[in-house]
Amino acid sequence: MNAGREPLERAYREEATRIRAALATRTGDVGLAEDAVQDAFIEAMVHWPRDGVPANPGGWLATTARRKAIDRLRRDQVGADKMALLAATEVWACPDDGQGAGAAEGKDGGGADRRADDELLGLAFACCHPALTQEAQVALTLRAVCGLTTDQIAAAFLVNEPTMAQRLLRARKTLSGLEAPVTIPDPDDLADRLAQVLAVVYLVFNEGYLASSGRQPARRDLAAQAITLTRTLHRLMPREPEVLGLLALLLVHESRAKTRFDGWGRLIRLKDQDRAKWDKRLADEAAAHLNRAIALRRPGPYQVQAAIAALHARAPRPEDTDWPQIATLYRGLKAMWPTPVIELNRAVAVAMADGPDAGLALIEPLAEELDRYHLFHSARADLLRRAGRTGEAHLAYRRAADLATNPVERKFLLRRLSEA
């Protein structure tokens, strides 16, 4: 069995998402595409160790997945129309001579690549359909687009595998019931739908950058998947400024990832990180993407957040950080995205620029809205400590620690409490 495992795993990484996207586009059914691709890989696990790895693994899998989809549709009378559509697209699947999908599509060269890109983007939009809850959008994107297994997604959401399997099944059934096309939305709807896709990708990254709970302080696999997906969106939509902005934002954060925890796994604050160890290559790439986004003159919230992150990255020392400019950018971000969390971040920047009392004046009105948000109490505690209000700072640190669900964050806050 081990003889075919390595090429099979490689084929899964390189081909599964493309095949899923192609099948979903042709059938309009994300669930059917997922099942058919899974069936194809199960069959490969049987045949490849016994018969040898085919000359074109991707083509073999594409053909097998297509046949599996047709088999499933034959068992379902409702699938007659989808089966006819699938049967009419022989050019997509690889021919029986084993030359593979690339040979069948080779005549149009770049056209085939563009079609595959459009199909992948269409799949991402389908997974982020507004009829689904945001939790379902994230889970389905991780499964269908990023290729994570159900147990990996379950671990990210801190539920057991059967529970996550049911959630994914419900999401797939919802999409199937809508009969929504798996395609890039019409231009009139593109802006709203793209915003949903970007929001889901950002949530995936944030969960990977600092897990909301669980034993692992960070999930580097999820952060990497989010960056890969954003790079794909950028490749498919190179002149979309908010895609550029999100990519820049994620890369700046990623450039600091290796310095966020010490050798004991403890969280290190931004101002205490070793800036010499930040990844300059990623930071430079982020700056280039941000400059291209700004040149398009269509500002958006991800571009502003990337600009804020870039100011932090640009400062050679913490005391060199341009806090007045960061506070100004947060004011602009609040106009685009008026949330209490943005106002909290602005308050922290104002406090760094003008002193803790100025920050507290902005933070205190947010107490009711953000009472269950541990970072509100953490930020407030820091400002109270700086203002010399030690007793209040202790209470705020304790409240923040009680609300924190990530064990590393909780330990960090308890450490701050003991130092205050």
Layout of secondary structure:
Layout: H1 5-27, H2 30-51, H3 57-74, H4 80-87, H5 101-105, H6 110-127, H7 134-145, H8 150-157, H9 161-178, H10 187-209, H11 220-236, H12 241-255, H13 280-295, H14 301-314, H15 323-336, H16 340-354, H17 356-363, H18 374-386, H19 390-403, H20 407-419
Helix pairs in contact: 1-2, 1-3, 1-6, 2-3, 3-4, 6-7, 6-11, 7-9, 7-10, 8-9, 10-11, 10-12, 11-12, 12-13, 12-14, 13-14, 14-15, 15-16, 16-17, 17-18, 18-19, 19-20
Provide an overview of this structure.
With 420 residues, this protein is an all-alpha fold. Among the domains are: 1-108, no CATH class; 341-420, Serine Threonine Protein Phosphatase 5, Tetratricopeptide repeat (Alpha Horseshoe), CATH 1.25.40. The chain is 70% helix and 0% strand. The protein contains 20 helices and no strands.
